[in-house]
Amino acid sequence: MVDSDDRDKSGSALSPSTSAVDTGDVARLRDLVRRGRDHLDRAARGDTALATGIGALYEKRYADAEKAFGRSIAATPDRGEAHYYLGLTRFMLGRHGDAALCYSQAIECGYADPEVVECLGDVLTVMGRDEEAIETYRAALARRPSPHGSARLAEALSRAGRRDEAVAAYKRALQLRLARVGPLYDIPREESEPAPDGE
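The chain above was modelled as a monomer; its predicted structure follows.
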């Protein structure tokens, strides 16, 4: 007996031989499903390793963190977050060149958090590459103005001997900080003081 669900719109019973899907389509569909499952399995392994690494990093177990982030990257190489955290770990281990490479890879993977760009600027500063750090901080600030990033830029400009630009960056950092904390303490803004970005 043919169930009503097994009939097409014309009322005739469906069979594999009358189906619109041929065996090649079925094989391709099965292959897509298998690859999808493989991708999800890799992503899950990457997520688990990433979470393990973050826990180890915050517990200052840097060797364990480095291994976990390596596993996460092996499972999901295009995930920028794992590269970023591996960079933080290597920075903490004093491996500044490796940290810079990890931050750069995170950015190449499209990890859009401006903190990554600021961290790249920090490691370039530690490595004595102030001009590169200045450009990196400017790129981060173009994405998201922040008092901390402006202060980092000011310090790099100061070290590079660019006093006037450093003073302007320090002023900008103070303006941004005041914009954040001023309303909490009823600190009025000066009439001549420009409003920070976003206001």
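The domain at 36-111 is CATH 1.25.40.10 (Serine Threonine Protein Phosphatase 5, Tetratricopeptide repeat).
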